[in-house]
Hints:
The complex is a heterodimer.
Chain A (H helix, E strand, L loop, with lengths): L3 E9 L8 E8 L4 E6 L5 H7 L3 H4 L4 E8 L2 E2 L5 H4 L3 E4 L12 H11 L4 H14 L15 H13 L5 E5 L7 H18 L2 E5 L12 E6 L2 E6 L1 H11 L6 H8 L9 H6 L17 E12 L2 E12 L2 E7 L5 H8 L7 E4 L6 E4 L12 H11 L4 H14 L15 H13 L5 E5 L7 H16 L3 E5 L3 H7 L2 E6 L2 E8 L2 H4 L6 H6 L4 H9 L2 H4 L2
Parallel strand pairs in A: 3-8, 3-9, 6-7, 7-8, 13-17, 13-18, 15-16, 16-17
Antiparallel strand pairs in A: 1-2, 1-4, 4-5, 9-10, 11-12, 11-14, 18-19
Helix pairs in contact in A: 4-5, 4-6, 5-6, 9-19, 12-13, 12-14, 13-14
Chain B lengths: L2 H17 L3 H17 L5 H21 L6 E4 L9 E3 H27 L2 H9 L3 H30 L7 H5 L2 H21 L17 H23 L16 H22 L3
Amino acid sequence: MAALSFERVSYAYPGAGRPALAGIDLEIEPGQLVLLVGGSGSGKSTLLRAALGLVPHFHGGELRGRVRVAGLDTREHRPGALARQVGLVFQDPESQLVMGRPDREAAFGLENLGYPAGEIAVRAREALAAVGAAGLAGRPAAALSGGEAQRVAIASVLAMGQPILLLDEPTSQLDPVAAEELLGLVVRINRDRGVTVVLAEHRTGRLFAEADRVIAMEDGRLTVDAAPPVAARALATSAQWMLPPVTQAFARAGRAELPLTVRAARALITAPPRAPTTPLPAADAAVGVARAHKRLGDVDALAGTSTAFERGRVTALIGENGAGKTTLARAVCGLLDLDRGRVEPVPARAGYVGQDPAHYLLHDTARDEVAYALRNLGVPGRERDRRVDEALARLGLAAFGDRHPRDLSSGERQRLAIAAVTVMEPELLVLDEPTRGVDGLRKLALVELARSLAADGAAVVVVTHDMDFAAEAADSVTSMAAGRVLSDRAPRTLLASGIFFVSQLGLALGRASQADAVAFLTEPLEAAHV
Amino acid sequence: MKPLPAALVTGPPLLAAIAAWSPLWLAAAAIGAALLLAAAPPPRRLYAVTAIGSGLVVFVINPFVSVQGLTVLWQGPHIPILDTQITVEEVAYGAGAGMRVAASALAVAAFVRLADPDLLLRAFSRVAPRSAMIAALATRMLPALERDAAGIVTAARTRAARLSKPRTAAGLLGPLLASSLERSLSVAEAMEARGYGSPARTRAPERATAGREWALAGLGGCALALVVAALIGGVTDFRYYDTLGDPWQPAAMAGAGLLLALLGTAAAVVRWPR
């Protein structure tokens, strides 16, 4: 019996113009590890929700065809009953924490499933330990960072030990080390315990080759469903951005081989020479901090931090969860007062796009949303309209001007938030985790946007855990740990030479970005590789 | 804190606020509930501002919509619909009604902040899963509202909004509510996805009741007995119209003072270092 089966499944959310799932036929055998890829709004999350019966039981709408979970028809069994068979980790960790403390969160599902009281504490503790969150057990859930909340959310589903595990972008808020550990854990659970895993991810680098199958979606349909090497060939011609960065580089370089892992790529080249590290030319600082201290609760979020962000340059601010990146970013934007130290020079106009785009949705239309900052600045009508049009077009939102912002998808909301801030033409722009929930194609657009704003003279700072994105977007890299700056404005080649905070291309080819990697792969053969 | 001691200690001021008429009893209930809220863990400000603000609105509006009382305090110009003849009795009744509203809201807020919402959810999830889910969402809504409010204010500040303007600040309330509702929907979905509502629900082992909770239950029980006895004995009665009664009755003063002392002691027990 299939673990999950979809028979001619179509589904539309209530009031939606087009179906979120269209004619899905799919069978997933017990013990398979399936990677689900596709753009934002392609139907991945809806497919996962349908597998737990949340679609249509929770969301309403019209479901055609049949979805079966371990033989149980989701039309006849509600999510509460299906929860014994299948667990789902949602995309946004902060919105799925039910209880006030991580240990109780991990126990919540076990209580619902009727586990004996004595077993609950043990399983909850083990699950928290498995994701490196045992130390968080008694902390208030409200005080958890995004990455910590994500670990707790994952632990609370793992604790339930269902035979089918669905994960919707589980690493979107984790630093590279934590993401590596988590995906390793998922693979172990699949291999050692035979748990069926379906994992939707935009960052495919770590899991593409590990999967038994790769399924690609577009407009609610399955476009590719094959073993990883076959899927890679198909995607190399239709949607390269869904491939792991190293595979993309080989495809772009026109190479016949398409390695799916760092190891496979290395086997295709001789040891690459270390990428040349050219010091960055000096540039004007748009903003800087000197010996900055900030205590948040019991934590020194900034502990004597000194750095600067320069005009005309994109700087990636990287570091583990809780390193102080967001605190520094908010301080330089004037959104947070320092306990000690100073911000100098102070930018004339700073823009900050935070992690939750919903906080930027105040108006009834996307156009009004973008115009809001200009109205506050007293920009006259005609000039305002022109700049609003430009900002919407730049972010690919020209067709959405009259739509209500809350009717937009999460990716569209993210872009609208960026448009609503960049329309002010800030001297300093901070994008805090801009790739959360953003697909590969949109990431490329974000790279273009960041670089064009920097080319216009702005200092652009991207706070990110996505090393592949950082490698594409940034000119320089500042890394932080425990409230201190570890490396200050290093050239982006840092992302090719690190140990953990390193892009996949850096690991495989010693080159940080696609452009550098493609240049390396297409240079005369005798130079570096066979 | 476990829900039962929290209910026992916040129940008496709520009961007094709902059923008493004496301004002394209403004041004791309001002050006592405010002390309990002040002793509870943060966030508290939003609750306090909402409760006291609601009470003030009732106090201000009542004299203009009520046409009672014989002791004229001020005679204003004729305005259709509004009563511009303000009497001492209307002002006193408005003050009493304002205290009633504020005390009720403060007592409920104190319960929300004192009772552990996880334990509340556990306690009721088997007998009334839907109600427990709504209660769980509600108890999380205000802290989440506060976090969302901070995020929305930050986002507005970075877009050059001048939040000192009341109209600008008021414009953020709608989006704040929308964000909160979206979040509640997501939490409800996550609860259902993890089997919430199953009839076979069990409970993880919980810690034993602490000495502080026993003490609060005792103080709350005494306060509850006092309020019930006072209500039955008519000690909490008071006349506002046509002319004001005398609020300074010895029994009312003694009873209200004792209620305040019990609630103040309870607040001190809550704050007592662990």
